[in-house]
Task: structure prediction
Amino acid sequence: MPSELLKSKQSTHFPITPINAGDLNSRYFFMGSCFSENMASRLEMTGMSCYSNPFGILYNPYSIAAALEKVASEYRYSAHDFTYHAGEFHSMQHHGSFKDRDADSLAVKINNAIEKAHEFIAAADIAIITPGTAKIWQMREPSIIVGNCHKIPNHEFNTRILSDTEVQKAIIDTIYNLRLINPGIKIMYTISPVKHLREGIQENLISKSRLISALAAVRTEHPEILYFPAYEIVTEELRDHRYYAEDLAHPSEWAIQYIFQRFCESSMPPKTLEYITETWNWLRLKRHRPGAENNDIWMKQCSDALEQLKKRWPEKQLWPAEWH
Result:
């Protein structure tokens, strides 16, 4: 058997039906797990217009839906919305990065993010939602589902996995609130491939299965909702621990880049994909700074390559920040 064919037997190539999810000047809104931020940052590096996670990283579909409800209604947070713990005010609907010793300052930060998110979504072409787990943490007093525990002791919370019906409702609520802001926005879901091993291996699998099952049910009723199989690519196509970071839970940098490439290949027209490829080549050149004796030559090479890119894609409206 030829070596390449033999090698191909070691993994399952996961086919993806091509979709038209964006072009050179599309605006991408991301929300969900840290995986969504990885995808957004890579697109942003190539000069695509992106905005991600106005509430910070959120993992469960309920918290994602609740956050988008706040964005859709342009809710204004104030001091009474916060929990005080360990000398700081926290928003229990937000990621742990949303904290401050002054409640008014925290409210300003949160409300600015909501305003920016609402404005961005209103003009966005596609929203990509990436839940990572169906497990929720619910405070005992007051009885609310939280987006983050903010290092409050575990005994203050109850935990459980959302039912299939609850996950479906959260997905439908998310769709509703996005369309409330922007009726024409395309919506794509992808399940984060990050393993939640602290929950236990079996519970993590149950949780991921719950997300996949509920999303499949919703898409039966809403076939216009797009799907990108990030979770399936990692678990079925790569399916090897060498594609994970040292914690064996998060995909490695190589795996993230591979998934990003699969995303671009399956969701972008050829001209945009060509632009992404050329931009990555430019970024590699830009980051390989030589010694001082070759610095002038390198700077000219970067400048010339940039000018060539701009000539090839004159219709491009936004360029990466580091190009300015």
About this structure: Residues 103-123 form the longest helix (21 residues). The mean pLDDT is 89. The two ends are 52 Å apart (CA to CA). The chain has ten helices and eleven strands.
